[in-house]
Amino acid sequence: MEPIEWNGIMGRKYETRIVKLTDQELRRQLTELEMTYNMTSADFLQRYNRGELGDDQMFIRWSGLLRTASKAGLPKPIHA
């Protein structure tokens, strides 16, 4: 990929993928992550923000789903 300049900062251009989720699908994915990792989203977020969980791709995704849910004004997942 070619370096690009954006606001005076050199970087690389990356493609991003925008995925649209329904409220129901967002909740389903959060619940699935909670069950897979045997922790609530609230516990996950505390541990993730403290750096206890590392930067596993699935944890990054989980964090992003929680930000999306928060921005959408959705209530916290049932298991939180």
Specify the number of helices.
Answer: 3
- Described by the principal axes of the CA atoms, the overall outline is globular
Q: What composes the largest sheet?
A: 2 strands, antiparallel
Helix content class: 40-55%
Widest sheet: strand ordering: 1-2
Report the average pLDDT across residues: 78
Rg, rounded, reads 15 Å
Distance between the terminal alpha carbons, to the nearest Å?
41 Å
Encode the helix/strand succession as letters: EEHHH
Number of strands: 2
The class by helix and strand makeup works out as mainly alpha
The fraction of residues in strands falls at: 5-15%
Stretches where pLDDT is under 50 for at least 5 consecutive residues are none
Keywords:
single chain, mainly alpha, 80 residues, 3 helices, two-stranded antiparallel sheet, 2 strands, globular
Give a concise summary:
This protein is mainly alpha-helical and 80 residues long. Helix content is 49%, strand content 10%.
Describe this structure as you would to a colleague.
A hairpin with a 2-residue loop joins strand 1 (3-6) and strand 2 (9-12). With 80 residues, this protein is mainly α. It has a domain at 22-74. The model has no long low-confidence stretch (mean pLDDT 78). It has a two-stranded antiparallel sheet. It has helices at 23-37, 41-49, 57-71, and strands at residues 3-6, 9-12. The protein starts with a strand and ends in a 9-residue tail after the last helix. The longest helix is centred in the middle third of the chain and has 15 residues, at 23-37. It is 49% helix and 10% strand.
